[in-house]
Amino acid sequence: MRYFSKLLSSILMSERTDPSVVIVNPAKKPQKEYDAVDEAGDKPLQAEREEEKADDGREEWANQFEFILSTIGSVVGLGNLWRFPIKVKQYGGAVFLIPYFTMLIIEGIPLFMVEMWIGQKFRAGCIAGFYKIHKALSGIGFATWMISFYTNLYYNAIIMYTIYYFFASFQKTLPWAQDCPVAESATDFPTACCTENNTASYYWYFEVLKISPNIETAGSFNWPLTLCLLAAWLTCFLCMVKGIKTSGKVVYVTAVFPFIALLGLFIMSLTLGDGAFAGLRYFFDPNYDFPNSTPNPDKVESWGHLKNPYCWLEAASQIFYSLSLGFGSCIAFASYNPPRTNFFKYTLGISVVNSATSIFAGMTIFAIVGSSAYKRGVGISDLSTGPGLAFIAVSEAISSVPASQLWSALFFVMLFMLGIDSQFAGMEGMMTALDDTTLIPKRLPRPVVIALFCAFSFLLGLPFSLQNGDYLVNLFDNYSANFPLMLVAFFEVIAVSWVYGLTRFCKDFEYMTGYYPNIVWRALWGVITPLTLAFVTIYSIVDQLIAPMNYSTVIGCENGDDWDVDAKYPGWGYFLAAFLTLSSFLFIPVMAALALIPDLLRTLGFRAVDIRLPLVCIEEEMKANAVEMTENCSTSKA
Fold first, then answer.
1. CA 515, CA 113: separation in Å to the nearest integer?
2. What is the 3-state secondary structure (H, E, C) of 350-370?
3. Terminal C-alpha separation, the chain
4. What's the CA gap between 58 and 295, in Å, rounded?
5. The predicted structure's pLDDT at residue 622
6. By the 8 A CB rule, do 388 and 83 touch?
7. Are the C-beta atoms of residues 596 and 589 closer than 8 Å to each other?
8. Which of 230, 329, 430, 521 could form a disulfide with 425 if both were Cys (CB 3.0 to 4.6 A apart)?
């Protein structure tokens, strides 16, 4: 209660109070005070001093434009193009924007600023950054690293698909628009399933994926996809080979081109006829019934979705993916900023760009798939979801426009750049965290470390190019990040507001940006955002415990018009899902226990051995302490 009352007073009081009331790491020396005030008590004296330069030898961005573009490339990714439109389609069209923007304000932007502050304040990646707040919090950084690692593995599999479709676009007739292969008999599966209205589905499942009937049937390696996966990891290596020196230059193309391509695709979509405008209206009008929609007696009125907790949960989840929160990339990018970079205006601007891109991408996708649905005589809700939205619905619509090969190549190269930007942003987050440790020998050049990491990740990702690889991609997507991401974000804001201290954080904020957060921001960081994250996290846990762990297995036309049915995972599928979920966030309690138990044992009078993490900052502290002790001994002898 004592700390709660102090936190509450720091939120309500406009005056700057003494930061000594917060919990600090007792093993660390007190920070240099920079919050002394002038005689009028209005402004920290440090703000009047000469611009402070970082003297830690850490690499910095060549200019702030590269930082902005890299961060935009990180947050604007594939999720904006198909995850966001899917959620809009599932939860009442434009009605979904209400929980989306609500979660952006009370959850997304405050967390975005917290991650920017951690990187810029401590000039470190996620592991060392949280350790510097308190030695018991390094597990948050390890959990972040594991989530990013799992996500990058399957994210490159999706990039693998975009590379395959990009090269397939350079055929005289787009392969997913060609006539169906001739079936030898009515039972010739899956050839007999191909009809004039589903050639794109047939091509995706049986020509590209060569999908097996279930996740248990691994099948053989799909060598064209394997080569595309190799190309994806090779691209990551080339973009990352010299850290931000190369990735900072690459983003001039990869972060800018998708916006140009998206604008071109939107203009093209408006030429597709009545179906495109019907799709746009469906996106914005909650009560609009799309032509040819299948009657649904259980249909929920669009506004009724606001009463559905899943709608709010999905909005929160979308914000995490959309802003790359909890993945460590924002912390890594901010760690290369000068100490007094005004990240406040950058986070607000990037958040606006990201949300505007999601809405504009949703308009483009709905116009394109609206045209496709209108021509096929089906409703938008009857079209594919997930990656299939891009590789089936959109590709099918593009195949019917003039110069379809050009538009197809443009669409898939845009997907590739959106994906690769987010991919090497995640890798930068992991590499920055590793650079702050002693796990990697310093004599090993960074290009060698990057090459070994990419090669190792490629080998681990090879199962995604098997015939059951798409099932594995969906399993990773469902269980590697959703719940662990919420938990990591909750502990992030608790670490900053409650452990480091809200008042102390606000003073750092003012020093870096020149702006002292008002009561609204303090209330968000101190109370509203943690409570919202706690509710979302608990609801996610309950949902995963009670919801059946099923997946969709592709059976072709054996089930009438439905090409897939729900199936239960095998035993090893349950184990893999549990491992992906638990292996990341369990670092949080384990690392806290390893840090605090030795102190507790010594307090109780027992002999305990300190467990030191392999972090560069710990070695530097030990060396500094050793030098100080030597100097003290020399002084006393004299």
1. 13
2. HHHHHHHHHHHHHHHHHHHHH
3. 49
4. 61
5. 58
6. no
7. no
8. 329
φ/ψ of residue 618, rounded to 5: -70, -45
From the list 329, 358, 290, 327, the residue with the least C-alpha distance to 82 is 358
> What is the rounded CA–CA span in Å between residue 446 and residue 435?
9
The mean pLDDT of the chain is: 81
Cα four-point dihedral sign 65, 354, 380, 558? positive
Mean pLDDT of 543-569: 73
Q: Report the pLDDT value the prediction gives residue 284, as an integer from 0 to 100.
A: 79
Task: Give the containing element (helix H, strand E) for 635.
Answer: helix 616-637
Is residue 570 within 8 Å of 215, Cβ to Cβ? yes
Task: Decide if 431 contacts 243 (C-beta within 8 A).
Answer: yes
Name residues whose C-beta falls within 8 Å of residue 481's C-beta, 6 or more positions apart in sequence. 147, 150, 151, 321, 326
Distance CA 339, CA 337 (A): 6
Rounded Cα–Cα distance for residues 316 and 327 (Å): 15
Alpha-carbon Rg of the chain, whole angstroms? 26
* Cβ–Cβ < 8 Å for 279, 371: yes
Residue 416: band (very low, low, confident or very high) from pLDDT cuts 50, 70, 90: very high
Q: What is the mean pLDDT of residues 294-305?
A: 63
The secondary structure of 262-317, three-state, reads: HHHHHHHHCCCCHHHHHHHHHHHCCCCCCCCCCCCCCCCCHHHHHHCHHHHHHHHH
Q: For residue 323, which of 157, 36, 114 has the smallest C-alpha distance? A: 114
Q: What is the pLDDT of residues 516-537, one digit of tens each?
A: 999 999 999 999 999 999 988 8
Give the mean pLDDT of 412-431: 91
What pLDDT score was predicted for residue 28?
37
Query: Each residue of 441-456: pLDDT tens digit?
Result: 878 888 899 999 999 9
What dihedral angle (degrees, nearest 10) is formed by the CA atoms of 476, 539, 113, 151?
0
Cis check: omega of the bond before 589, within 30 degrees of 0: no
Q: Which amino acid appears at position 607 of this protein?
A: R
Angle between helices 616-637 and 126-133 (to 10 degrees): 50
**Which tokens hold the place of 627?**
């030098």
Tokens (6 digits) for 44: 């920290």
| Residue 5 scores a pLDDT above 80 | no
CA–CA separation, 137 and 131 (whole Å): 6
User: Band of the pLDDT at 383, cuts 50, 70, 90?
Assistant: low
> Rounded to whole angstroms, how far apart are CA atoms 464 and 480?
15
Backbone φ and ψ of 579, nearest 5°: -65, -45
Reported as half-sphere exposure (CB side, CA atoms, 13 A), residue 234 has a value of 8
CA 71 to each of CA 63, 247, 332, 459: distance values in angstroms, whole numbers, following the listed order: 13, 11, 10, 28
Query: How open is the CA angle 525-502-27, to the nearest 5 degrees?
Result: 125
Residue range 545-558: average pLDDT?
A: 74
DSSP characters over 88-141: HHHTTGGGGHHHHHHHIIIIIHHHHHHHHHHHHHHTS-HHHHHHHH-GGGHHHH
Residue 298, both tokens: 């259980």
Q: In terms of pLDDT, which residue wins out, 178 or 182?
A: 178
User: For 195-229, how does the pLDDT look when each residue is reduced to its tens digit (9 = 90+)?
Assistant: 666 788 888 888 899 988 889 988 899 999 999 99
